[in-house]
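Re: duplicated header lines in exported structure tokens

Our pipeline writes sequence and tokens for each protein into one text file. With two proteins the header for the second block appears twice in some exports. Here is an export where it did not happen, for reference. First protein block:
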Amino acid sequence: MFIRRNLVYAVKIALDSGFKACLFLSLCLLVLVLIEDGPSHVISNQEPRHFDVVKASRIELVQRELLNENAKGRYDEQGFVPKTSDIADRVFEIIPDVKNTSENETELYQVDATQNTHAIKSTSKFLFVLHHYEQLGKATHNLVQLCAIAKQMKRFVVEPFVRDSRMCGVPGGWSGQQRKRSRLFRPFSTYFDVDVFNNLLSSFGYATMKKLETFKTSCSNEKTTIVHFIYADVDAEQSLRKWYNLSVDQYIKVKNDVQRRGYCDCPFIDKGLNISNRIGDLNVGRELCVDPEKIRNIDEFEDQVLQNDRCAVIVHWRGIGKNRTNFRPRVKLKPWSLVTSLKHSNLIRNEVARFKEVSFIDNHPYIAIHIRSERQLQWYGIEKLNKCIAVMIQQVEKLKEMHKIDKIFLSTDLSAYGSDTLIFPSAQDTEFKQKLGTIQTEMLKQLQPLSYAPHTKRNSVLFDKGVVAITEMNLLFDSSHLVTIGSGTFQQWIIDVFIKKYSKDKHQNWTITRVCNREEKRNVKI
């Protein structure tokens, strides 16, 4: 986009300056063709997590409900509601077209689910992750990034298991005692249509995923290399010492050893987390600690660190970025664009259809609200969260009146199925819990919203927090008007799919309103 704007400027010069300027313009055109011809993208730690839009005119489709003048005067200086231009910047990133076939130009949902994937050979190589870091939105993004890295390493990625918005390499959990049967992680297909997932990966230059049993069978007679990344954050020492029961002196020795060439032997990893027994049928070979700040090149990681060993286990995977790994794989489509194109499981899609039918919102417009209060409480405190909710309610009332809509759907992390990290230092404080309860009660009283809850027995898979979250996600981006409080990867996922859906038809009547989505760097006692 930057190049095209400069090119327009060059045209203006050409009109005024004659032949020399025309020659200059021709050179600019040649540079433009050379730069924009390539369909691939480099993934880096600066990669935005936003929906990719081909045409700049799409930005005009973002409609914004602003505060009324009175509220605007009270709240703007506190950063409650960003300006329209800020919304556009956060929602859109303009990139060159991804070149596709005419049969399937941009509609990623239409990838053929019957497409054949790579067959397993006796020489096939694998990347297995034991502990997938973070909750559903970021964990999914991290997983897709891993598939991009694995493709360059000519490896398959082992499909994780899921439960309550978390991912794990094995059903029994990655640390501590093996989980009981009722608490086991569930198949990946509980959340996603795995066939579509793999075909998207294959179509856009990513490694595909294989089942755990395939990995175990293929690696049963191989030496498996285990890798622990020592990420550059304050928790690195604590996690290394805690997981592997290391003394201070042992930790210092590991840190010194790993800094010499970026990796070193760490023969305590398997014993510390009982990895070989957790996975089963695993013959452990080398155990390595790796500094991701020093090992940044994928080929170096594959050739020198893993030494092309067929079977490799990553203990703790955080993806690409600050305090994560620094690999930069090339793909045809950025990971976040692929994440926002994923298709969810039949279980979830059927539950969405059922809820719409019983709630009388099927084929009817409704306003959807998504509240991510965890970060608001961390950034601002409970009093400002209350003000944010007040602003949100004002906006919803305006939308109801303007668009003649009476149905409202609410999704919030304050519910019983919300974030498992929503734990406060003062959670036992009676006054705090009373305040939070009062805010919720008053909000529900004013909005009178619909809320999703599983309709079956308590032990049903529908009570899985991840299933609930994805069901609510589908109900959110199927609305006509979306209102959000807070931010985060999962919320951005909702916003980007919502925009992708409605940007196909500029005549659709839709809006996005984001309230209190900026972080204020200050320590707040809640």
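Second protein block, exported in the same file:
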Amino acid sequence: FFRELTGGIYFGEPRGRNEADTRAWDTMTYTRDEVRRIARMAFEAARRRRKVVHSIDKANVLETSRLWRETVEEVARAYPDVTLHHMYVDNAAMQLIRNPRQFDVVVTGNLFGDILTDEAAQLTGSLGMLPSASTGAEVGLYEPVHGSAPDIAGTDRANPLATILSAALMLEQSFGWTDEAEAVVAAVSRFLAEGWRTADLADDQTPSGKIVGTRQAGSLVAEAVRQAVSPV
């Protein structure tokens, strides 16, 4: 998911309420430059993957979405090897559940991305599985999609996999260390393939001996990374 983070309704002006507190308003705005920036990033990523981009908007009713769609199409002309699909956000929300395999790279605005990424996270079984990157021209901030979960702080119950995968994303995107990033991702895949689960991923069929806490999960993934990068 490529979600535009600096524009849209969260930052639009004016916003407010009337004196009687009976009406409220927000403003959604986008510039072509804002859309071009995130669209180029999505198409560049698609070139390294399955060469398919889904652009999510509401161009049937919103002027900002019409500008979004026009601008994404403009950017797409520079990437003839990448297939572009447009999809309305309400349909996208349904399709994520109905047929998630059709998606590879998705690009969308701030509000729609905020909602759809949480929905998509559940396809993995937990918010504790999804990494994220907030990237600019030179600097990237990498973090899990989930919040800080203060209610389980210090209890050894938090799922560390999204944090670990965020580090892998940083290795790949900011440092260009593709092999190292792939080793971390492979270690997480091995952890799951061997049946290990943190509490948020476990169900009634999970053997109790396979349910681990934060520390043990981290240690198991770290050991898998060491084995992957150590010479035979």
